[in-house]
Amino acid sequence: MRKRGFRLGIYVFKDAEIIDYAAPYGVLSVARRLDPELDAFLVAESLRPVQTQAGLTVLPQYSFAEEPDMDAYLIPGGFGTRQEMNNGRLHRYIRSLPESCLLVSVCTGSWVYGRMGLLDGLAATNRKEPDRLEASGMGMVPIDRLAEIAPACRISRARVVDSGRVITAGGIASGMELGFHLLRRAGYEEAFIADVARIMEYDRAYEVYRTDFEEA
Fold first, then answer.
1. pLDDT band at residue 5, thresholds of 50, 70 and 90?
2. What is the pTM for the complete model shown?
3. CB–CB of 70/11 below 8 Å?
4. Which of 120, 126, 127, 159 is positioned for an S-S bond with 212, CB 3.0–4.6 A?
């Protein structure tokens, strides 16, 4: 059924998009019913409460200083990524992670990796559907903004893009597919993943989206 357990650390910050981090967290939470060795938790700069999008406040389980052991580190998107792109403490923390730790993102979380140069020579994706501001002359579609931030990155329009150590997912709800793919990268068999999707009553959507994937 599996190779081993898997620990996902999710970075939370001011104005992080809720579904970006809650969807992959939820996938692993349900999968944990089938294998208790799975784990997902929130990581922030400090252990203070973090106000994410729309005022939803969460309490991280770990701070950067505690250096939790994890197999993957996820950066969600949201309005707050505009500040996180220039957050030197976050960048130093990411660079301190062992090479064995996957670097993953949902939506505009990939902007952070792009600003750090970690997407150079790789394929990556981002949200393709703009909100009203992004669709106006005052904004830019997030996937086009990624191309501007990381000109050496090959932009993909797939829902999930696996470029080895770096895995990126598109817009908000694609965090579901990212969660399922992380189970795959952790070594779980397809039957296990399909069972998780069934329990979540997501099996029909899973069948539709599972092929919207690029392995680069």
1. confident
2. 0.96
3. no
4. 159
* Of residues 54, 55, 64, 71, the one with CA closest to residue 9: 71
Are the C-beta atoms of residues 115 and 84 closer than 8 Å to each other? no
pLDDT in tens, 141-177: 999 999 999 999 999 999 999 999 999 999 999 999 9
Amino acid at residue number 141: V
Distance CA 93, CA 37 (A): 25
- Could you give the residue ranges of the DSSP H alpha helices within the chain? 18-31, 81-84, 88-96, 110-115, 132-135, 142-149, 175-185, 190-199, 203-209
- Report the C-alpha gap between 198 and 157 in whole angstroms: 27
Which is it for strands 160-162 and 38-44: parallel, antiparallel or unpaired?
unpaired
Q: Alpha carbon 80 to chain centroid distance? A: 14
Half-sphere exposure of 68 (CA within 13 A, CB side): 24
The rounded distance, in Å, linking the Cα atoms of 209 and 161 is 13
